[in-house]
């Protein structure tokens, strides 16, 4: 479980992109203690994808994760994590701890629902308004204005939704943009919708099927 408050970014330093055994090694940047309490089997949110640590070096500040075929289908990995030359940056967040910390984002599972293309970025004062177009438009039914959404691991507030076009928007202040890895127009991001909305939709659907026959 995560909060959607990105801690730092990392870079891919090694890649084994065999679908039967897809592994990625990530170098953590600008946070020397990120892996200080890391254990094999821990979960780390990598641009919104909950991935399992299979190897790490806390002194050199890198970790390796294994990636399943299902994860490849759902996420931006095959589009964006395909080579070492593209210097793709990854948003990183450790799983929630049990200490006395304020909960700043929303409940994020790291279970990506789909991907979306960055189609617009419009400056407004110190903020930038981004628009994204969903690959799988059926997910738009779970996206509501002023609700939660996770974009590449970041907990954000939805500012607008177009159900017909399958697009939604968010607004990012400068601080958020400075923390997150940059995603130019034409690139893709991972999307996790609010799990509460999915649960409600499922229950309503089952109720309607049962009582409207």
UniProtKB/TrEMBL annotation:
EC number: 2.5.1.9
Pfam families in UniProt: Lum_binding
GO molecular function annotations of the record: riboflavin synthase activity
Domain Lumazine-binding: 1-105, 107-204
Keyword Repeat in annotation: yes
Origin: domain of life: Eukaryota
Pathway membership, UniProt: Cofactor biosynthesis; riboflavin biosynthesis; riboflavin from 2-hydroxy-3-oxobutyl phosphate and 5-amino-6-(D-ribitylamino)uracil: step 2/2
Membrane spanning stretches: none
Residue stretches of each Lumazine-binding repeat: 1-105, 107-204
Signal peptide interval: none
Entry keyword set: Repeat, Riboflavin biosynthesis, Transferase
GO biological process: riboflavin biosynthetic process
Tagged with keyword Transferase: yes
General function of this protein: Catalyzes the dismutation of two molecules of 6,7-dimethyl-8-ribityllumazine, resulting in the formation of riboflavin and 5-amino-6-(D-ribitylamino)uracil.
Protein's UniProt name: Riboflavin synthase
Originating species: Hanseniaspora uvarum
